[in-house]
Write a structure and sequence with these properties.
single chain, 4 helices, two-stranded antiparallel ribbon, alpha+beta, three-stranded mixed beta sheet
Length: 171
């Protein structure tokens, strides 16, 4: 029962993340269908490319959710399969996805010049970064740029996402 409650909470938390690409797919396909005769071939290709990209991302997210539910042990502990990934590529993809949804929001990214490989599940880390960027945008109440900084210290990787908003109520 404890494990199924954790899965339920995970699915509830992810529902917003699943709605985002679905909304984009519906919007792009609706635009295509209603404006097809007025669009150039390049505009049509761009919409179809967006639909494909969001559908692929959605498929990967659903597969990850299914994987999480399958890999829990009898104590409800989840293990994640990690592979060495380029941190810069994962962060770039998360920021690109964020900008696709919020094109007017500035994110200042500061990554060390050195190439950093990190054992991780890239899709899940990308989603965490994206969620934090969205929270910074929605809850800060500030128009100032969001800062995403990466640093390493004594073999530890730190990723900081900072907004310049009102902060969290101490209560």
């Amino acid at each position: 029962a404890k494990a199924s409650a954790k899965v339920k909470n995970l699915i509830t938390e992810m529902s917003h993340d699943l709605r985002t690409p679905l909304t984009s797919i519906i919007g792009s396909s609706s635009t295509y269908l209603s404006q097809e005769e007025y669009m150039s071939p390049e505009e049509k290709r761009k919409l179809v490319r967006n639909i494909e990209e969001d559908a692929q991302w959605l498929l990967n997210m659903v597969e990850n959710l299914l994987s999480v539910t399958r890999i829990q042990d009898d104590k409800g502990i989840t293990s994640v399969t990690k592979t060495d990934e380029s941190l810069e590529e994962v962060i770039s993809e998360a920021v690109r996805r964020f900008h696709k949804r919020f094109p007017g929001v500035t994110v200042q990214v500061h990554i060390p010049e050195s190439f950093i490989m990190v054992p991780m599940d890239a899709m899940l880390i990308e989603q965490v970064i994206n969620n934090l960027l969205e929270n910074a945008h929605f809850h800060s109440g500030s128009e100032k740029p969001i800062e995403l900084k990466v640093r390493t210290e004594n073999g530890v990787l730190y990723i900081t996402i900072k907004d310049h908003g009102k902060g969290i109520d101490p209560k």
